[in-house]
Amino acid sequence: MARGSDSSRQSTPSRARTPQRRRPPASKRLRPLTSPSSTRQRVGDPINPGRGKRRYRPGTLALREIRHYQKTTDLLLRKLPFARVVREISQEFITEGDVGLRWQSAALLALQESAEAFLVHLFEDANLCAIHAKRVTLMQKDIQLARRIRGVVAGLG
């Protein structure tokens, strides 16, 4: 490796070469000029830059959601996506000569009510299975056990 001679390097520190300057006090410093476009708020900037959104302890919002949904009686699944799924499943039972099934809105609503009631009851039973296993996390095996314990009477076939 070819290197330059050691005499070409200087041993004096860089601060020794440049004189120290004192900074003026904060009141006498000039502010940088800013254009109006840079002071305008941009998309994605927080509304309160100094303070973020309030954070709750883990589980607080979940408990609030549980209380909210236990009080309400409205449907949790959206009506149109549920109706599309029902129509898609009903197409499988139509023979080749048939045109298709037409659904009354009251029939779709009744089917959705019963489906949601079934799912809520299943999740309640599965949650009891998880608590019995000394867990708070709902797992697939809890749902399978709840379905197995219910048996054919609950409409599982």
Percentage beta strand: under 5%
Largest sheet: none
Average pLDDT confidence is 81
Taking all Cα atoms into account, the compactness measure Rg is 35 Å
Tally of DSSP helical segments: 6
The CATH first-level class of one domain comes to Mainly Alpha
Low-pLDDT sequence parts: none
N- to C-terminal separation?
83 Å
The gross shape turns out to be: elongated
State the secondary-structure class.
mainly alpha
Strand tally is 0
Helical coverage, percent range: 40-55%
The named CATH superfamily of one domain:
Histone, subunit A
Order of helices and strands: HHHHHH
CATH topology assignment of one domain: Histone, subunit A
- Give the CATH architecture of one domain: Orthogonal Bundle
Q: What does it look like?
A:
Residues 1-10 have a biased composition (Polar residues). It comes from Paraglomus brasilianum. The protein is mainly α and 157 residues long. The protein has a domain at 77-93 and 103-152: Histone, subunit A, CATH 1.10.20. The chain has helices at residues 14-17, 36-39, 60-71, 79-91, 105-132, 140-150.
